[in-house]
TrEMBL record:
<dbReference type="Pfam" id="PF25247">
    <property type="entry name" value="LbH_GLGC"/>
</dbReference>
<keyword id="KW-0808">Transferase</keyword>
<keyword id="KW-0021">Allosteric enzyme</keyword>
<comment type="similarity">
    <text>Belongs to the bacterial/plant glucose-1-phosphate adenylyltransferase family.</text>
</comment>
<protein>
    <recommendedName>
        <fullName>Glucose-1-phosphate adenylyltransferase</fullName>
        <ecNumber>2.7.7.27</ecNumber>
    </recommendedName>
</protein>
<comment type="pathway">
    <text>Glycan biosynthesis; starch biosynthesis.</text>
</comment>
<dbReference type="Pfam" id="PF00483">
    <property type="entry name" value="NTP_transferase"/>
</dbReference>
<dbReference type="InterPro" id="IPR011831">
    <property type="entry name" value="ADP-Glc_PPase"/>
</dbReference>
<keyword id="KW-0547">Nucleotide-binding</keyword>
<comment type="subunit">
    <text>Heterotetramer.</text>
</comment>
<dbReference type="InterPro" id="IPR011004">
    <property type="entry name" value="Trimer_LpxA-like_sf"/>
</dbReference>
<comment type="function">
    <text>This protein plays a role in synthesis of starch. It catalyzes the synthesis of the activated glycosyl donor, ADP-glucose from Glc-1-P and ATP.</text>
</comment>
<dbReference type="InterPro" id="IPR005836">
    <property type="entry name" value="ADP_Glu_pyroP_CS"/>
</dbReference>
<keyword id="KW-0934">Plastid</keyword>
<keyword id="KW-0548">Nucleotidyltransferase</keyword>
<dbReference type="InterPro" id="IPR029044">
    <property type="entry name" value="Nucleotide-diphossugar_trans"/>
</dbReference>
<keyword id="KW-0750">Starch biosynthesis</keyword>
Length: 529
């Protein structure tokens, strides 16, 4: 039976912030409800009708997730989804082309998104998995520096043509190119410039327009070096419901880290009034806001008085093309140039993401984010069956652990541990750790290949070091890159507390107090670092 609610519909402040504005004062007829309640009676499913000028319109795509009655004739909507989720009209662009200087030496021979994380994954797996779990199957990855291993991983992990039906979806790596003419004389100059150089993929009038993008309405801009789990279609839905030209995913931030991010000021409906990229001093303090508008408690708001951009954006396609090609044709970066310059002219909205998120942009943040995976419970977990993290299939056997003690650690598949002690560490795939080895607060990225028992014996007989860690070695606060060969009786502890050191000829660097053993390097027996 139909239920009429032709009177006022009240919305909470949180609902307004999340895009459910613009309903009050309209003549709505509530036909069916989903998990709702009217005057104490529970009803199921939802359909809304709007009466305009005597003509009733069915709004079949609008779903009321929770409705409760306050008094007769008045209803409160707490969580309103205004349009059907349609990921076919969304394309994701993952930015993976930066030089990765802050993550050096892990980026010496690989792109930032190809850096391993969590023992078995790569950073690119995070936005790729979020896209898949959100139903978004049109994905471009823009690359520039050291992209060989990234391209190889993408081909192995996300090749949907391998007998797997993926509809009209695609995953394509777009490398920085140089073509004849003025536009091709330079490489990508920044995030915005990278997208600009491939604008023809979405522009219908372009001569080489990609016909697969004909249905695209919104463009999702993502970074390839963040760790988080997010439903991108919730983000896009919020963007569409609000009518925003641009929506920025943001999170509350405290004083200690605020100056590392783009900060914004918003009104009580979530509209961005001003934006400042990595402000310092007085400019930083000027960006303080009352974050209770985001739904934080008073105590939380006092601890986190800033609203920081995650570097995750959704643009209306036509707005993005207009900004890149005509309004700001020389702007190179979204965060420092296009977003601040657009705040007054365009409707930019903030979207609250109040969950775990980490920018894996430095050696220290990479190190700490990996070790945080071993916590109980971890702030971020790869163990979520409903929203899994995908990666390439390697067909490796389970790890073999002989007479070893493992405390608060992750041991990835295909590893061999013998008579060793592993504390608060992450051990990557195909790792080989021998007798009386002690790892503490260490991230070991693993190996790309196995050496057979015969090969190991031959190397030892020749006085050479096999891949892995040999006997009686002690390692603390260290990142061990892939295929490293660490000999017997080695001590890596940085006991003098050195913060920065470049010793590439000796096979290691120190960044922010963390020792990094280089990929394919050899640390000889008895070395002390």
């Amino acid at each position: 039976m139909a239920v009429s609610a032709d009177c006022r519909i009240f919305l909470s402040a949180a609902g307004q912030l999340h895009g459910a504005t613009g309903l009050a004062g309209r003549n709505w007829r509530l036909v069916k409800f989903c998990n709702g309640e009217v005057m104490g009676k529970k009803l199921k499913q939802t359909q809304l009708q709007q009466s305009i000028g005597g003509v009733t319109k069915n709004v079949r795509q609008r779903v009321c997730m929770s409705l409760t009655a306050d008094v007769a004739g008045e209803a409160k909507l707490r969580d309103l989804e205004m349009e059907k989720r349609d990921p076919r009209t969304v394309v994701a662009i993952i930015l993976g082309g930066g030089a990765g200087t802050r993550l050096f030496p892990l980026t010496k021979r690989r792109a930032k998104p190809a850096v391993p994380i969590g023992g078995s994954y790569r950073l690119i797996d995070v936005p790729m998995s979020n896209c898949i779990n959100s139903g978004i199957n049109k994905v471009y990855i823009l690359t520039q520096f050291n992209s060989a291993s990234l391209n190889r991983h993408l081909a192995r992990a996300y090749n949907f043509g391998n007998g797997v039906t993926f509809g009209d979806g695609y995953v394509e790596a777009l490398a920085a190119t140089q073509t004849p003419g003025e536009a091709g004389k330079r490489w990508f100059q920044g995030t915005a410039d990278a997208v600009r150089q491939f604008h023809w993929l979405f522009e219908v009038q372009a001569r080489n327009y990609d016909a697969r993008s004909k249905e695209i309405e919104d463009v999702l801009i993502l970074s390839g070096d963040h760790l988080y789990r997010m439903d991108y279609m919730d983000f896009v839905q919020n963007h569409r419901q609000s009518g925003a030209d641009i929506t920025i995913s943001c999170l509350p931030m405290d004083d200690s880290r605020a100056s590392d991010f783009g900060l914004m000021k918003i009104d009580n409906k979530g509209r961005v009034l001003s934006f400042s990229e990595k402000p310092k001093g007085e400019d930083l303090r000027a960006m303080q806001v009352d974050t209770t508008v985001l739904g934080l408690s008073k105590d939380e708001a006092e601890k986190k008085p800033y609203i920081a951009s995650m570097g995750v954006y959704v643009f209306k396609k036509e707005i993005l093309l207009n900004l890149l090609r005509w309004r700001f044709p020389t702007a190179n970066d979204f965060g420092s140039e296009i977003i601040p310059a657009s705040a007054r002219e365009f409707f930019i909205k903030a979207y609250l993401f109040n969950d775990y998120w980490e920018d894996i942009g430095t050696i220290r943040s990479f190190f700490e984010a990996n070790l945080a995976l071993t916590e109980h419970p971890p702030r971020f977990s790869f163990y979520d069956a409903t929203k899994p993290m995908y990666t390439s299939r390697r067909n490796l056997p389970p790890s073999k652990i002989n007479n070893s003690k493992i405390i608060d650690s992750i041991i990835s598949h295909g590893s061999f541990l013998t008579n060793s002690l592993i504390e608060h560490s992450v051990v990557g795939i195909r790792s080989r750790i021998n007798s009386n080895v002690h790892l503490k607060d260490t991230v070991m990225l693993g190996a790309d290949f196995y050496e057979t028992d015969v090969e190991v014996a031959s190397l030892l007989a020749e006085g050479r070091v096999p891949v892995g860690i040999e006997e009686n070695t002690k390692i603390k606060e260290c990142i061990i890159d892939k295929n490293a060969r660490i000999g017997k009786n080695v001590i890596i502890a940085n006991s003098e507390g050195v913060q920065e050191a470049d010793r590439s000829s000796e096979g290691f660097y120190i960044r922010s107090g963390v020792t990094i053993i280089l990929k394919n390097s050899v640390i000889q027996d008895g070395t002390v670092i």
